[in-house]
Amino acid sequence: MLKKTTLAVIGLAASGFAFAGTMGPVCTPGNVTVPCAANLWDLGIQALYLQTIYGGAKERAAINQFNHVENDWNWGFRAEGSYHYNTGSDISVNWTHYSSDTGQAGFIGLIPVAPFISPFTQANQNRLDQINVVAGQHVDVGLVKKMRFYGGMQYANIQTEVTNYYPSAFIPPLAQRSPISLFDNSDFKGFGPVLGIDYSYNVTPAFSVTANGATSILYGTSRYDAGYVAENVALVLSSTYNAKKIVVPAFEAKLGLNYAYTMPQGVMNFEGGYQVINYFHALKTQPLQNPLQPILSTDYGLYGPYFGFKYLGNA
């Protein structure tokens, strides 16, 4: 009897130990694959509706308050083309262009002659041209997630031109009165590596959520040129110039939706979303446009919606 009881206890303990050590269902990760070998091409165009924003140093003295210039929303575009080869590899070129003109009034600032403080109106122009040449690799993560990793080179040309128009003032060197204007210009041209990733999640076979993130490091020249001019005789009353080689980090982010319409000879993709672009410390400025202030670095950024289409066809 004792032997039977002992064997029963040992058997129960062994079965309990075996149960405690048993693992649950084993999760199998999704497969990461590349597309089958194919030769394809695509062409696309996007309309951009963006607004420019500068860093905090680029301020203006407004009547009764300190304020920065609110640039107008304006249209730009992004054109792109790619050649796809092998198993998901591609070479891609894209060009982003944006420009905006803004006119504002209600500001007050300094002038180099009496009365030294004067109201003014302002014309503000800015422009961005960005060109990327990159190589990419497409991968499928499971059935609904797709990713594209890419890297290459980026060129950026940023220009801002600001002109203040002041009422007529007495100019001692001329012994007469003349309207005064202030030119306040800064630009950056740089070139460097860019890395990024495109991501899409298929909600249905035709409809997907898309995201993009990219970063670049550009080396180039940032210039600043400012001065006061007596308009009647184009006499420069004072001027400041600065040029410096700098390294500018930049980033770009997008979040959007894509609809793919399959056609007999290819696929037409309709896409739209929201994007942000920022170049850190790319431009130069003097706070409140005061020639006695030090020259500081300031950011240049763009943000707003985009929409467009891209056609993918067989080579």
TrEMBL record:
Record lineage: Bacteria, Pseudomonadati, Pseudomonadota, Gammaproteobacteria, Legionellales
- The scientific name of the source species is Legionella maioricensis
The protein depicted here goes by the name Major outer membrane protein
**UniProt KW keywords:** Signal
* Signal peptide residue numbers: 1-20
> Cross-referenced InterPro entries, in alphabetical order?
Major_OMP_Legionella
Write one Pfam family the protein is assigned to. Answer: Legionella_OMP
